[in-house]
Each structure stands twice: as C-alpha cells, then as structure tokens.
Design brief:
The complex is a heterodimer of chains A (173) and B (209). Chain A has 8 helices and no strands. Chain A has 173 residues and is an all-alpha fold. Chain A folds into 2 domains: 90 residues, Orthogonal Bundle (Rna Polymerase Sigma Factor, Chain: A); 71 residues, Winged helix-like DNA-binding domain superfamily/Winged helix DNA-binding domain (Arc Repressor Mutant, subunit A, Orthogonal Bundle), CATH 1.10.10.10. The radius of gyration of chain A is 20 Å and the shape is elongated. Chain B is mostly helical and 209 residues long. The relative contact order of chain B is 0.17. In chain B, α2 runs antiparallel to α7, α2 packs parallel to α8 and α4 runs antiparallel to α8. Chain B has 9 helices and no strands. The chains are: A mainly alpha (173), B mainly alpha (209).
C-alpha cells in the first residue's frame, strides 16, 4: 500500500465518523506536508509554523475534497498554496533575524506599563516565548526544547513578539 | 503557532463534524441571490422590456442572453472547480471562450461588413447598469468562492469578475435598445473584461485563506 492509498483509506474512514482514523489521517498528512515543505523551504525556520497552517487549512477546507477523489493531489495543492502565500508574506514583510536586535528593544520603554497585560495582547505563542526567554530567563534553546520547536523558530517568535510589543507600547504612548 | 503539532492534531481530530452538505447555502446561494437581486432590481427600475422585439423579433435577445447566460453558468462552474485544490482547471478555463465563440458567430460578419453604428441607443444607461451590477455579481462570486479553497487566486478572481459581468449583462440586456457588434464590444464586453481584470488583480487579496 502506498502513502496515497493510506491517506485515502483514512479519509474514507474519517468521513464515516471514525475520530481515530481522522487523527491518523492528520498525523500522516502532517508527515507528508513536513517532508514536502522541507524540500522547498531549504532550512526555513518557519517550517513547523507552515506545517501547522497547512494542517489547519486541510481541516477547515476538508469539504473541498470530493468523496472518491485521491487525497494526495489535494494535499499537495494546499501545501503549494500555503508555501506561495508564505513567500508572498515574506516578500511584503521580510523578517531579518538578528541575535542582538531583540536585546536592544529598550527595556526602559516598558517600565511604566503592566507587562502581563501587554503580553495578553500578543498571540499566545509569542507571549509564551517572551515569558520563557525574558521573564523566566531560559535560553532560546531551552525554551525551544520545552515547547518542542526548533531554536530558530523560537528566536523568530521572540523577535516578532517584541516587535509587536514595541508597536503596542508606541501606540499607547 | 499556538501549540505543538501533535496537540494541534489532537484538537483538530476532536472536531469531526462534517462540513460538507452545505454547498447550497455557502456556494450556490450567493450566486443565485446576486442573479435574483440584479434581475429583480432592473425589472423594478426600468420600463419597456424587449424594446427591439417589434423590429427584430427575439434574435437580439437570443444573441445577448446566449452570451451572458452561458458566461455566467460556465463562470459559476469554473469557480466551483477552481475552489477545489488539486483539480485540473485548464479545460474549464478554456471553455470560458465558448460564449465568445458564440457571440463571434453573430458579431464578426457585422464587423467585417462594416455595419458599425456607434455608439447606439441609450449607451450611457448600459454603462451605468454594467458599472453598478457587475460589482454586485463579483462580490457574490467572491463570497461563494471564499467558502471553497482556490489555490490559484488570480485565476479565480478573474473568473469571479467574468461572473459579475455576466450577471449584470443578463439583468440589463432585456431593457437594452442598443444593437450592433461595436455596441456589444464597447458597452458589454469591455465592462465585463474590466471587471475580470479587477478580479485578477484583487483575487490574491480577496480570496486569500
């Protein structure tokens, strides 16, 4: 049985209401999405973010897969679309990772505000990344290990979170 | 992302409520609604339908409606195909040329024979009707397509524009006294292609998912 057949069978069982089969389907889809995206992303730190985005899309748009049609071309098309969308966003808003830049966000600028309230305004993943690295004092690698993502992805979350915090504070000033 | 991939999978897997079965409500209803709205509003606002009937019989309507109705039906079908990832769509895009071939059969002899009255009767009203109703049909097509998952958003936006133009022409054509090939090209085809171009440009933004 090849991979495509397995996905087709799992989806068929999931359609019949088998929750375990649907979980297996998503797990298998995640593996294939990761493999397919990794080939094209060439070590991009946001690989796992994109895998998760594609998985959510697979789930949200599962009604666009007609019964009886093979899953693989549908899944590949979604992965390709998400990758192109990722590149488009990247093109519009390039993120340059700089290890020293995050430390340079003026700490004094936050002195007069409630940090916990500010963090609540961020996406949970970014808030959690900042809590671990800037409040608990974990290193980037330790924080990355704790939530099960790559070191670069963790740096990216912290970086984006701090930039957003800066904007929030600037907006309030 | 909010969580680990394994946790995400567990969360998604717990939500197995089927999402199919509501294509009528999500995809077809906006398209139908736009048609009914445009046709109904035009019929309420304008008088004297089929003004050319006494002079030329049903032929002008057969030509105009033949083009516009086939365009909006094929465009609707194309959106349905384009909204399904992994489905080949070249054939349906190519079939969008069929309405043009149909109208070309009637218009080309007129163009070649030099029978080119222009601009024609009530052309301003025609442009206004196309300008008002094309965006209504386009918006409905975008709304319908957003429920699906178009992976070529430019192409889908282009087709949504064609659908909008097709709806507008279908609604207005019965009240149109204008005739001739140049009239068709200027006051129907150009507005339809303009709407399609707007769709092509805005598709990636409007249809992003």
């Amino acid at each position: 049985m090849n991979q495509g057949d397995r996905l087709d069978l799992l989806m068929e069982a999931a359609r019949a209401g088998d929750e375990a089969a649907y979980r297996d389907f998503l797990g298998e889809a995640a593996l294939r999405l990761r493999a397919s995206l990794a080939r094209r992303m060439n070590g991009d730190a946001e690989l796992e973010d994109l895998v998760q985005e594609a998985l959510i899309a697979v789930h949200e748009k599962r009604h666009t897969l007609d019964p009886g049609r093979p899953v693989a071309p549908w899944l590949n098309a979604i992965a390709r679309y998400k990758l192109i969308d990722h590149w488009r966003r990247r093109g519009r808003n390039p993120v340059v990772l700089d290890d020293t830049a995050d430390g340079e966000v003026a700490a004094d600028g936050f002195a007069h505000v409630d940090v916990a309230t500010l963090l609540d305004q961020l996406p949970e993943a970014q808030a959690e990344a900042i809590r671990m690295t800037h409040i608990e004092g974990l290193t980037g690698a330790e924080a990355a290990d704790r939530v099960g993502i790559g070191h670069s992805a963790m740096k990216l979350r912290v970086h984006r979170g701090l930039l957003r915090l800066k904007d929030i504070v600037a907006g309030k000033a | 992302m909010m969580e680990r991939t394994e946790d995400l999978i567990a969360r998604l897997a717990a939500d197995t409520k089927p999402k199919s079965g509501s294509a009528m409500r999500h995809f077809i209803a906006p398209l139908l609604l736009a048609c009914v709205l445009c046709i109904g509003a035009t019929a309420l606002v304008l008088d004297d339908p089929f003004p050319t009937y006494h002079l030329r019989g049903w032929l002008p309507m057969v030509v105009k409606w033949g083009f516009s109705v086939s365009l909006l039906l094929i465009a609707g079908l194309a959106l349905h195909v384009l909204g399904r990832p992994g489905r080949p769509s070249g054939w349906i895009i190519a079939s969008l040329a069929l309405p043009l071939v149909y109208i070309g059969y009637f218009a080309l002899p007129l163009l070649l024979s030099g029978d080119l009255p222009w601009p024609g009767l009530a052309w301003e009203r025609c442009l206004i009707a196309m300008g008002i109703m094309s965006p209504v049909g386009f918006a409905a097509a975008i709304m319908a397509t957003r429920w699906l998952a178009p992976v070529d958003t430019r192409r889908a936006g282009f087709v949504a524009g064609l659908f909008g133009g097709g709806v507008a022409m279908t609604a207005y054509a019965p009240f149109c006294p204008g005739e001739g090939a140049l009239y068709f090209v200027t006051f129907y085809l150009l507005p339809i292609l303009t709407m399609a171009a707007i769709g092509w440009l805005s598709g990636p933004k409007l249809l992003r998912w």
